[in-house]
Fold each of these.
Amino acid sequence: MNINSLISHVTLASVIFAGAAFGASKATITMQSFGKTKDGADTALYTLTNANGVKADITNYGGIVVRLFVPDREGNMDDVVLGYNTVAEYILDTPYFGALIGRIGNRVADGKFKLNGQTYNLVTNNSPAGIPCHLHGGTLGYDKVVWDAEPFIENNTPGLKLHYFSVDGEEGYPGNLDITVEYRLTNDNSLKIDYLATTDKATPVNLTNHSYFNLKGEGQGDILDHVLMFNAANYTPVNAGLIPTGKISSVKGTPFDFTSPHAIGERINDDNEQMGFGGGYDHNWVLDNQDGDLALAGTVFEPTSGRFMEVWTEEPGMQFYCGNFLNGSHIGKSGKSYHFRNGFCLETQHYPDSPNQKSFPSIILKPGEEYKTTTIYRFGTR
Ligand code: BGC
């Protein structure tokens, strides 16, 4: 289905798919226009509803998860991700709310790396402590492009297949990268993301999703009372420019130890050099599971709503960023400003600056190989 031809016929949300239901409710997908980009390209917003009434609004602009409604322990649905109501606001200014990130998620020191004897210069679009680096794919990362979209329902599970062809040289990266991302809203209340990519030239690839969560609901204050547990005995400490030093350090005895449950706010103001560099948590955890199988990376629990979220991934790392750069300047979907630490991200990934860190797992994809990785955000209550 060509979305542009569909969008031109659809102004109000209309049901475009309904699943076959056997006892349970039917999964549905509706679609509406999400407005035009500056170049006049149409964008669409797809509402995926699973058999339990859990809903995700996803746009093909940046593959952004715009809304995600999940129940609290009383069954009340709240939107647990930060974001905007219009594509225009995402285009104007976003700290990557809900977006797909690539070609390299996270930072590359000085925007430079060497591959097969050649030095590649990426756009430097970020400079923590005045030290320039490449962040989240550059000035025109995958969060800022329009993806081809194909909604589908299989086994009463609604999904959205997104495709983007990232050309050789884009933002300085070598090789044409053919990318498919599939979102599914499964009936165990999971948002499942499958990333697939192939290339015609060796290139670094590290895709992720940059959703900011607040399990109380977006706009409902800070996330410091959320309780985390990570299956990660180590993390990658950084320098002042938020680039890993190359060390894999034990979390034991530090505020980075979430091997047992701790509230985000519990140790965030501890006198700790790493916490100073990040302005709070903004680090990559080395997940205990390193074999590429799907494993539980961590769990987040919000006591007042009773909501929890599990993160499952095949990736070896996870960036936990707790919204230290949010400063009230972004006004979200319900008209509320997003202030300091009003949302947190759990970005499953390979480690930051991987192309320059020989001891980290490689992110180089070669022609003939397939980049294939899955991450699941599963929601429940207790
Ligand atoms: C990074 C932060 C960065 C933020 C941008 C996160 O993934 O870890 O350092 O500022 O993205 O919004």
Amino acid sequence: MNIERTFVAIKPDAVQRGLMGKIITRFEEKGFKIIAMKMLEVSNEQAASHYAEHKGKPFYDGLVKFIMSAPVVAMVVEGIDAVAEVRHILGATNPNNADVGSIRADFSPVMSCNCVHASDSVESAKREMSIYFDVEKELCTKWKTRMEIILDDLSK
Ligand code: CMP
């Protein structure tokens, strides 16, 4: 089994609209393990670092302003093929193209306020989680979810 960690951020639009619980529930109910989570106000430095790849694009300034406009909930999510599967649960960046039943299809009216971000690769996940967490100290790794216990028992 390919166990991966990915970085997820519930964005200001979803926090302001009271959707935090519903979004977290999507990952928990699927069987993913949340191993770190915090609410924070994103600093200028964190925003610039997180969205460095988009610097120079027409939507960059709006993106940075938006991510700092209200708190975000930053998470590290672990599980089987977590990078791709978490993005599957999110749906396409543009909610108009998102699969029915995905977070963005269900909750987001427009790409600039698409409720949630998730890393696009294992490398991006490592980089992004280190912007928001002290990875050596803040990840809760010494526990098992019910799903992990079930899978452990089946493999005996
Ligand atoms: P996210 O997954 O956080 O990554 C970059 C964000 O830029 C993206 O979600 C969108 O919310 C936002 N964005 C705004 N306009 C565009 C655009 N034209 N193309 C891609 N992303 C955009």
Amino acid sequence: MRIDLLSIFPDFFTSPLDEGIIRRARLAQIIDIRIHNIRDYACDRHQMTDDRPYGGGEGMVMKPEPLAACLKAVPRYGEKHRVILLSPRGPCFSQQQALNYAGLDQLILICGRYEGVDERFTERFVDEECSIGDYVLSGGELAALVVTDAVCRLLPGALGCADSAEKDSFSRNMLKHGQYTRPPVFEGMEVPAVLLSGDHAAVDRHRFVESIRLTMCRRPDLLKGLELSREERKVLKQEGLLTQVEQMQARV
Ligand code: ADE
């Protein structure tokens, strides 16, 4: 997969894209990430990429020409590509959207700045807008990094181990259970005994129940989209949780 990031602050990306999982995925050629400086496509002497808004008002608006020229210079890769503008106006990014994006050949992420982007550019060139939450950032760069990270870890081979992306929170409308490592006793607190038992089925069951409890307590809204197998329903019944989970699922 290829991800192109268009920004007036290309240095923003250097360190985050050169660490950890993303770095490994880039080195393994699982993902090809290219950064483009919109300023390089500004046509005037001062390399201006923003200007005052028509009609007056606070702040500056990103000019359409440098954005369009920069976007046009990005080669299209594969058959399935999308041009996405990071902006607080878009629908909220989710694990489901990360999965959708991970199925594409190319994501072109445009980082807006200032008070916004000239609407004509968005209308003509942008397939969709994408927000990472109901708050306003100084620009789309951090949001583009969030999207890049969430997508990258879903690509086959990116995590190294076979299936840990599937066990992440949200991949099944459930929060992830707590995790423990050595030492077995920390400040008087013990690791749950079942995790030391070596009984894999008991460990899976314990983790599933803990995930459900955590989700019920912190994000009951997620339970609505959670489909439970017969075996899972049986476990929840034995734990005395099934009725409560079903009530939460039925709530509007
Ligand atoms: N740019 C500014 N705020 C943003 C947000 N919440 N999500 C995506 N892009 C943004």
Amino acid sequence: MADIENKAFHTLDKAAALEALESSEKGLLPEEAAARLEKYGPNALPEPEKRSIVMRFLSHFHNTLIYVLLGAAFVTLLMAHYIDTAVILAVVLVNAVIGFIQEGKAEKALDAIRKMLSPTAAVLRGGRRVTVDGTEIVPGDLVLLEAGDKVPADLRLIAAHGLLIEEAVLTGESVPAEKDTHKAAEEASLGDRHCMAFKGTLVAAGEGTGLVVATGQKTEIGKISDMLANVETLTTPLVRQMAVFAKYLTGFILVFAALMTAFGFLVRGMAFPEIFMAVVGLSVAAIPEGLPTILTITLAIGVQAMAKRHAIVRRMPAIETLGSVSVICTDKTGTLTRNEMTVASIATAEEVLTVTGTGYGPEGDIKNGDRKIKADDHALLPEIARGAVLCNNAALQEKDGTWVVEGDPMEGALLALGGKCGFAVEETQEKYPRLDTIPFDAKHRFMATLHEMEGEKRIFVKGAPERVLDMCAAARGADGQDKKIDKKYWLKAIEEIAAEGQRVLAVAVKTAAKNTAEIGFEDVESGLVLLGLWGLIDPPRDEAIVAVKECREAGISVKMITGDHAATAAAIARQIGLEKTQRVVTGAEIDGMDDAALTKAVSESDVFARTSPAHKLRLIEVLQADGKVIAMTGDGVNDAPALKRADIGIAMGRKGSEAAKEAAEIVLTDDNFASIAAAVRGGRTVYDNLKKAIAFLLPVNGGESFSLVAAILFGLTLPITAVQILWVNMVSSVALALSLAFEPPEQQVMKRPPRPPNTPVLSPFLLWRIAFVSALFCIGIFAQFTLAQAAGLDVETARTMAVNTLVVMEIFYLFSIRYTHGTSLTFEGVLGTPAVLIAVAAVTVLQFLFTYTPFMNVFFGSNPLTFMQGVQVVAFGVAVLFLLETEKFIVRRFVKKEKPA
Ligand code: ATP
């Protein structure tokens, strides 16, 4: 192949472009595509540069607490307290290593999730439509574009029907550019190359076919390196608030620490080394540096769990918003139903036929009652079947004995019907070639194609039946003659088929003038002859029925907003278990309502039919004005504004367009309503776990700091030394808090109402909890220390008991905090989760090492304890658990209104 890189494809005509790339109107053969993939490499842009490993590791030393500690290490070195210096440095290092490993894991998880979103593209290979991974596209491929697609490579268009492409990413022009197939002038700027489509731009309307002229880095967007995808960071408003909170708290503590140093030195007359170490201990105790990291990891684990349940979070704040969602607006096809369509009935001007056979294979019969009908002997069936096969963009393929659809399942079902009528799909399409198309659009709800047929030109139209009915003057009778249309008869037939939950489509035909080469709306608006109706079944998903019920229990109402017919929508809504299905509001009715009337209608009905994307937007607006938090699903390019406007936009990963996915916060990889319910559950769980981590760590910090401040203020011996606090905070507390990230949902998680938006994180209850537990911890530490000293134990042993008491109290507090909304004193509660048990086991082993190994005794100034001293330590933990459970009980019982954190 000649040098394609420097060719100005926009100046070549179609044939020359195809020739230059050694391709044809049937695309490349699969073997040739594979060879070119080897030669040109994958169609991918280089990954945005990541920080190097060294920088990532060093970044873990970049926080205030570490600076304080490094300063402390330096001062201890000057004071010749070498052991302290060594311990501080060791802990700083261990902490950075743990942070580095955890961060690496979180990033990997995010990377894997991002990969799940990599786009696919429909291409023609050897004349067949196939869906391939976007990275596998090669120069010479023919790419099929439709509304909502992201253009996967730079293309020379060889077919374009009403094609509009948004090129703002490249040209800055916000109005979509009209595309055609005529060559452009050599000097035309990117925005004026109307016969080209560029990688990364978005198809706003219409459809087209393009020849790939450049892939990957060779594309126009590939040449501009700073336009690469921005990377989603692992943060939410809650995490950000906590990071800010931690920063302020740190500043406050540093000032406070300076004051305490002055106080200890000047007022209490403490020696400098002593007061210095006490204040270092206080800083370590009080600065919640570990908190933001733990929250980030909790988030990463939550996001990963949600991805496993088919919900991919594209924007992290959505996780929090999910917990507040009070209305889910969902579409029907594929989300509540399986999107496995089968034509079950055909209505003609005089009879209603049934069609048997499931799946997309050609096996099945057409029957009138019990009588089998041969399509060839029927006056209407062959033309109806031709309409099904020709006015169609899908393809069927047999894979391992089952037939699968490439493209829209509804169109797949129509191809299967063609097969059942005896028409081989590809042969028919070749025999009657398509000359032009009016692509389907949810706005006009029909699709039309122009064909060359036995010397004449014929237009087939299929679409929403009321729409097509309006375009027809006549209907074809059983004798093959066209007669004036009896609208009443047809409307009744539509209602009857739809009432069974079947989706109804109408098919019509028109003979066009011999010289017609293109068709526009004016060609199909009138003079069509109605051939008949198709009724398609699409069974509801069993799991959606369960999920709708679950949502209702969680205080979330579910509204079905569909483009389908009112009667079909109502029938499916009833099968799914939606509550208010008596009144179905249609798009036309919405148009006639003011906001007040619409608000009332929304509260009275769960089903909205024959809606367009603009109606979705209005529904969101009135619901939001009513104080509701909305999750809204969407798939088409026109859904993007509604997805953006909704509090949570949810796009369909399979049938959804790239435009919808980019506008959405969440993408469902299985298009299933049950995954929305699972996402809500996941979001609520992550939020709970974030709060649990906060509620766990802050009181630990509080308890330690109070003890140290009290000791300094009252001139008492420190119950825990600085390096001991370092040990507890950077080893035990972190391990225990991390286990909370793996907490499964609490039983009640989908039984409580949505969290009102804007509830503060540090709710009065949480603040109370922090104060209460801090006090408990402080008292526990001091009481144990004082008891030990009163019993005549040396200060090292007393401190070892105090440290172990603190850790044991933490462990018991961990069990308590796992159940915010119920008691922890259950069999399940005591058993814990694997993560909790591993953390507890690890911390226990570490505490044994701390207490009994000689080198730890030297490093941390600890002393081995006797068995009875150990029992005394554990007794304090048990006491704390009972006190906490009593508090929970009292709150549950008497302070009903205030929801526990
Ligand atoms: P939902 O919004 O629940 O996914 P939907 O798929 O019916 O439902 P739209 O895609 O907006 O919503 O379709 C609206 C109507 O347009 C359909 O009910 C059908 O009558 C008609 N229609 C859909 N797809 C096609 C198509 N490819 N060709 C012709 N008509 C179509």
